[in-house]
C-alpha cells in the first residue's frame, strides 16, 4: 500500500479486520517485504540508463526521418520509417531472434571501435531492389539464392544510406560510417561475445504496399567511449559552453573585414514634384544646412559622426570631428 492514501473509513475497516483476526499484521509485513525484492539477471546486464536510452531514441528518430526522405527520393514511392522500440539485451538473444536467411549489413563507425549490424527484412530489401531496377516494388523472398548482381545492388543501396546515419549522430560525435560486410546468414557473424550487451533499435518500415522491420544492433563496446555524451546533463552543459577563444578570434577577424557603406551628407531639402519636373541647368536648391555647420556622416543608414569636408591627395575627403551619441542621433 506504499504510496496510496487511505480514507478514514478505509483505515477504520483495516483496523477492524486486524482486531477481529480476519487479517494478520505479520502477513501484511511479509507481503510488503516481498514486494521490495527485485529479480536481477546477471547474464542480462543493463548497462545503459533510461536517460541514455532516451538519447539513443532521439538520435534514431532523427535517423528514421532522414532515411524516410532519402528512400522516398531514391525509390520514388511511398516510404515511411519510424522507431518502434529501443531495447538493451544480450547479443546472443538478438542473434537467436534473427531469421536463418535475411539481409545483414555490417559497418563501422570510425573512430569508434567495434562494428554495427543492420538487419533488413528480406521482403523490404526485395521491394527496394525491385523499385531501383524499375519495377513496381514487388516483394520476393528468395534470399537463399541471391545473385552477385542482386547482392551488389542491395549492398550499394544500404551503403549510400549510411550518410544519413552519420548526420543523425553529428550532434553527439562526428563519425564516418563504412560498410565492411554483407551477409545473408547470421551464423557466419560473430561480432561480440554472446553475453555482450547490445542496444537494439527496431524500425517499422513501409515501402509502397510492403511492410517489415529493420533492426539495428549496436554493441556496448561501440558506444562505451561516448556514453557520458548521451546524458541530458552533458547536452545542457554543451549548450551553455562559451565559444572557444580561437572561434571568438576568427569571428572578430571576419567582422573587422566586413565592408560598410559610409555616406557624408551635405544636407537635405524638400521641393514639390512640380518644381522638380521644371528643374533646369543652373537652378539652385537650398539645403537645410549652412556652410559653417558640420556634415553628418552615416554608417549605412545610421547617423554616427559629424565631419567637415576637405581634400586629401587630390581627392574629396571628410574629416571626422566628433561622434554622435544616442541622444544626438535620435534628435537629428
The number of helical elements comes to 12
- Write out the strand line-up for the largest beta sheet, numbering strands in chain order: 1-5-6-3-2-4
| Main sheet specs | 6 strands, antiparallel
Number of domains: 3
How much helix is in the residues?
25-40%
Proportion of residues in β-strands: 25-35%
Give the overall pLDDT as a whole number: 81
Mind telling me the CATH superfamily name of the largest domain?
Answer: CheC-like
CATH T-level fold name of the largest domain? Chemotaxis protein chec
SSE run: HHHEHEEHHHEEEHHHEHEEEH
Keywords: Bacterial flagellum, Cell membrane, Cell projection, Chemotaxis, Cilium, Flagellar rotation, Flagellum, Membrane
Main location: other
InterPro entries: CheC-like_sf (IPR028976), Flag_FliM (IPR001689), FliN-like_C (IPR001543), SpoA-like_sf (IPR036429)
Membrane topology: Peripheral membrane protein
Topology:
Layout (H helix, E strand, L loop, with lengths): L7 H13 L4 H11 L14 H26 L3 E12 H7 L5 E8 L4 E6 L1 H11 L15 H13 L1 H8 L6 E8 L13 E11 L2 E10 H4 L8 H9 L4 H12 L5 E4 L7 H5 L17 E5 L2 E11 L2 E9 L2 H6 L1
Antiparallel strand pairs: 1-5, 2-3, 2-4, 3-6, 5-6, 7-8, 8-9, 9-10
Organism: Metabacillus fastidiosus
Subcellular location: Bacterial flagellum basal body; Cell membrane
Family: Belongs to the FliM family.
What does this protein look like?
By secondary structure, the protein is of the alpha+beta class. The protein is 38% helix and 25% strand. The protein has helices at residues 8-20, 25-35, 50-75, 91-97, 122-132, 148-160, 162-169, 220-223, 232-240, 245-256, 273-277, 326-331; strands at 79-90, 103-110, 115-120, 176-183, 197-207, 210-219, 262-265, 295-299, 302-312, 315-323. The longest helix is centred in the N-terminal third of the chain and has 26 residues, at 50-75. It holds the Pfam family FliM. It is a peripheral membrane protein. InterPro entries: CheC-like_sf, Flag_FliM, FliN-like_C, SpoA-like_sf. Keywords: Bacterial flagellum, Cell membrane, Cell projection, Chemotaxis, Cilium, Flagellar rotation, Flagellum, Membrane.
Amino acid at each position: 500500500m506504499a504510496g496510496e492514501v487511505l480514507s478514514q473509513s478505509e483505515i477504520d475497516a483495516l483496523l477492524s479486520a486486524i482486531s477481529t483476526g480476519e487479517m494478520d499484521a505479520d502477513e501484511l509485513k511479509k507481503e510488503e517485504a516481498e514486494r521490495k525484492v527485485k529479480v536481477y539477471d546477471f547474464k542480462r546486464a543493463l548497462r545503459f540508463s533510461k536517460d541514455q536510452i532516451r538519447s539513443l531514441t532521439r538520435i534514431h528518430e532523427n535517423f528514421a526521418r532522414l532515411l524516410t526522405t532519402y528512400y522516398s527520393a531514391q525509390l520514388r514511392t511511398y516510404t515511411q520509417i519510424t522507431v518502434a522500440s529501443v531495447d538493451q539485451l544480450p547479443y546472443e538473444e538478438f542473434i537467436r531472434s534473427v531469421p536463418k536467411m535475411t539481409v545483414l549489413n555490417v559497418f563501422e563507425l570510425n573512430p569508434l571501435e567495434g562494428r554495427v549490424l543492420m538487419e533488413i527484412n528480406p521482403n523490404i530489401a526485395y521491394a527496394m531492389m525491385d523499385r531501383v531496377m524499375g519495377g513496381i516494388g514487388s516483394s520476393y523472398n528468395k534470399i537463399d539464392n541471391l545473385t552477385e548482381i542482386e547482392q551488389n545492388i542491395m549492398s550499394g543501396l544500404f551503403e549510400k544510406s549510411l550518410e544519413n546515419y552519420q548526420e543523425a549522430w553529428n550532434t553527439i560525435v562526428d563519425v564516418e560510417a563504412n560498410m565492411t560486410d554483407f551477409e545473408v546468414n547470421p551464423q557466419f557473424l560473430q561480432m561480440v561475445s554472446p553475453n555482450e550487451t547490445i542496444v537494439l533499435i527496431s524500425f517499422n518500415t513501409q515501402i509502397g504496399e510492403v511492410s517489415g522491420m529493420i533492426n539495428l544492433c549496436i554493441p556496448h563496446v561501440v558506444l562505451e567511449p561516448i556514453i557520458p555524451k548521451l546524458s541530458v546533463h552533458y547536452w545542457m552543459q554543451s549548450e551553455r559552453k562559451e565559444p572557444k577563444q580561437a572561434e571568438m578570434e576568427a569571428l572578430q577577424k571576419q567582422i573587422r573585414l566586413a565592408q560598410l557603406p559610409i555616406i557624408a551628407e551635405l544636407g537635405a531639402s524638400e521641393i514639390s514634384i512640380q518644381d522638380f519636373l521644371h528643374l533646369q541647368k543652373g537652378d539652385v536648391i537650398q539645403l537645410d544646412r549652412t556652410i559653417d555647420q558640420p556634415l553628418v556622416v552615416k554608417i549605412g543608414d545610421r547617423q554616427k559622426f559629424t565631419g567637415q569636408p576637405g581634400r586629401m591627395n587630390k581627392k574629396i575627403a571628410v574629416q571626422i570631428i566628433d561622434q554622435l551619441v544616442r541622444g544626438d542621433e535620435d534628435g537629428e
